[in-house]
Specification:
4 strands, 2 domains, 115 residues, alpha+beta
Length: 115
């Protein structure tokens, strides 16, 4: 911190991150998907899967329309399409979560408009 305050021009990224961390300016949230165990909810036409941010479980879902339109899943088993595109779907859920684009209940819902 003293080197930074002293105007040192050659400061390392790790030092900058350390300073930002001390000041509380780093976002420490991280959404991971250890085992999403997806299930299809017929009533809401969504595939539901779970993420984790530290000790907090985060409910995530992707609408059937997104699976059909963006992952060529029309008429196919939604869970199989989810499994085949899991990385891209998790990426979008993570992006929405970190951007704070959550539903009223704190969950993440991926809609067609997100793509």
């Amino acid at each position: 911190m003293s080197r930074f305050e002293g105007g040192e021009k050659d400061i390392q990224l790790s030092s900058v991150l350390g300073i930002l961390g001390v000041l509380g300016l780093l976002d420490q949230r991280m959404l991971v998907f250890p085992e999403p165990s997806p299930r299809y909810d017929d009533n809401n036409e969504i595939v539901v899967f779970w993420g984790r941010d530290g000790d907090r479980e985060v409910r995530c879902a992707i609408h059937r329309e997104v699976i059909a339109d963006h992952f060529e899943g029309g008429g196919k088993d939604k869970l199989k399409v989810f499994a085949a595109n899991r990385e891209a779907i998790e990426h979008e859920a993570r992006r929405k979560y970190l951007a704070g684009k959550l539903e009223k209940d704190g969950s993440v819902l991926i809609r067609s408009a997100d793509f």
